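dumping this here before i forget
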Amino acid sequence: MIIYFAVFTIVLALLAVSMKGRNEDDKPALFFYIASALTLASFLGLREGVGTDYYDVYVKSFDSIALGGRSRFEPGFTALLNTISLFGLDYHWMFLVVALLTVCLVYHAVFKIAGSSIWAIFIFLIGGLFFFSTNGIRQALAVAILLNALPYAFKGDAVKYSLIVLAATLFHSSAIVFLPLYFFRNWKLNSWKTVVTVVGVGVFAGLLSQIILNIASSLFPQIRTYIAIEHLSIQYLASGNIDFSDMALCLIPFVLYCGVRRKLGEEARRLDFPFLILLFGVLVCLMSGTISLYSRLAVYFSSFAIIAMPQLFYALDKKEVPGRFLVKTFYAIFLIASSLFLFGYLNFSEVIPYKACFQLLS
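structure:
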């Protein structure tokens, strides 16, 4: 994990410098902000063999598509691979281009709406999404696109919100689950509608998960593939396995927000929607206890902590809420501990050891 710690330190240091030179709109200085993004994207994109599906899924599929084979992926990702192979480039360029797109889109979303760039990127780095992006590269790219839809939900711009969600589905079809979330943008977390929804999903999680699965299988070929292939059906559909890691990544921020919500006054109206997304993430994780496939959706929801928590911290500082330092400290310790356990000890996504592609030349 030493190489990750070193790179993350450089990335956050560049962000700190960019915040020192922020402009009159309180936006970071672009030069150092972009330098931070490119440093991280290069580190992610130049890896070799890092990520569970690196060789077995993505390298094999890229080589097959380059030779004229049929793609198993969504049209946007397939078009990207065809473009790369058209120029005679190998699979390393696929990982580099996807890393650049993912990291830059996350940084763009953070630049637009997060209350603190340093907190947001810190959460991106150790809150699960960065390490997940070494493995689920299509879905991580879809998440990065979805983060940019949030400002249009705040503005009530249904067209632009929907277009961004649909753009995300071009890289991972499951991103379509965010389309109906637009209609929850004005819900208050303390309203009876929210309480009824949460209780209803909790009580009828098994039935609801099966209904949604039946609808999804009629719309998406990938779901039908899971049903048709026996070992995938057994692993993802015939049994449940609650995603406790993503549940914690959604639940802890939500609980912290609920603990200080009353002290935020009108600021809470703006913050309710991103934290409602995290609450929906908890419910999705509960549904994974019936059908494991739902755990594959959890990263969409847990990743919105990248936007939600910095906005919360910004509001706490603005209101000078007592105890805000404890809230920040607790959350930072939670993220560091969970990251060390999941990715350092359990080696989720097989991110250790890190190897760069240019090491092959030595």
